[in-house]
Amino acid sequence: MTTRRVGIAIADPELRGVVDALVSSAPALEVTAVAESVADAEFEDCDVLVVGEKAGLDRLPAMLDRIDAVVLGTSPESMVEAVQAGALGYVDADAPLESILGAIELVADGNGTIPPELLGTLLRQVVKRRRAERAELDRLDVLSPREREVFELAAQGLDKETVAERLFISTGTVRTHKQSIFRKLDLHSQAELVALAVRCGIDVTEAADD
Amino acid sequence: MTEWSRAKPLRSGEAWTRRQGSETAVYMDGVLHMLNASALAIWELCDGETTADEMAEAVAEVAGLEIDLARADVEVALRELHERSLISTGEEAAP
């Protein structure tokens, strides 16, 4: 039986203690890091992270390429935030202890879990978010195909020279396209450009060179 | 493309509901139905505004499924809900 290493990041000291004791009682789980917040401890060696809703959910996306997370929360809103942050599981912090441990064990085995009765709520939020993204994407219809390419590369933070290199055009042409983009979309800064790209659901993390 | 592709399904009316273990009892027009979590979630999305495609995209994202598989699952759910008279096909979305 493979032992899964569990990190615990929960702000509430009592709940943190209870979860620590609960996980320690499970034969296939081992607590390796405990902290109030995701930022307070080193969780790189953990297989699973149990996170309280006030322990830094905004830091989860950066960690989830190497660790799975289950979030303990108290509201449908925190469940939606957890899933959209990439958590594999969500369980109500007030659920019976066996349900909390069951959720941790499921995520430790690589399975997702959310309370079935909250599935409709989650799907509704995703529909709403995607509609908002489509509405923002429609704004980009005013751009030419080339301007759209420049927009997406600029949103990744690439400088003019790199954009020019990627698209096989001159830096002067990149500058002209960017001016047109800013004018057509009524943007006033690089930050606004990035914010619009994010709202459109465009990935703004810098892509590696092919 | 199927009959559901551009549909905006609508729940047939108000229903009495109660959770019953892993399922939910839905009582409508004198008939008691038992829906599992997935069917209930799809039924709850049938507000006359949300298209079957939008439902499928959400399911694909939440469940980590390929969109074609999510679309097929959603259509199976909608067909069953329709057969039980729990939803109507509603208006069609514009092409």
Describe the structure in your own words.
The complex is a heterodimer of chains A (210) and B (95). Chain A is an alpha/beta fold and 210 residues long. Chain A has nine helices and five strands. Chain A has helices at residues 13-24, 60-63, 76-85, 97-108, 119-139, 145-155, 160-167, 171-184, 190-199; strands at residues 4-9, 29-35, 48-52, 68-73, 89-92. In chain A, strands 2-1-3-4-5 form a five-stranded parallel beta sheet, with helices on both faces. In chain A, strand 4 (68-73), helix 3 (76-85) and strand 5 form a beta-alpha-beta unit. In chain A, helix 6 (145-155) crosses helix 8 and helix 6 crosses helix 9. By secondary structure, chain B is an alpha+beta fold. Chain B has helices at 37-45, 52-63, 67-83; strands at 7-11, 16-20, 23-28, 31-36, 87-92. Chain B has a three-stranded antiparallel beta sheet. A two-stranded antiparallel ribbon of chain B has the order 1-5. In chain B, helix 1 (37-45) crosses helix 3 (67-83) and helix 2 crosses helix 3. Chain B is globular. The interface between A and B is medium-sized, with 13 and 22 residues.
Largest sheet of chain B: 3 strands, antiparallel
Low-confidence stretches of chain B: none
Describe the main β-sheet of chain A briefly: 5 strands, parallel
Rg over alpha carbons of chain A: 21 Å
Note the overall shape of chain B: globular
Distance between the termini of chain A: 41 Å
The portion of residues forming beta strands of chain A comes to: 5-15%
Distance between the termini of chain B: 12 Å
- Written as H for each helix and E for each strand, in order along the chain, the element string of chain B is EEEEHHHE
Sheet with the most strands: spatial strand order of chain A: 2-1-3-4-5
Gross geometry of chain A? elongated
Low-confidence stretches of chain A: none
Mean residue pLDDT of chain A: 90
If you average the pLDDT of chain B, what whole number results?
89
> Element order, helices and strands of chain A?
EHEEHEHEHHHHHH
Strand residues, percent of chain B: 25-35%
Task: Tell me the number of strands of chain B.
Answer: 5
Number of helices of chain B: 3
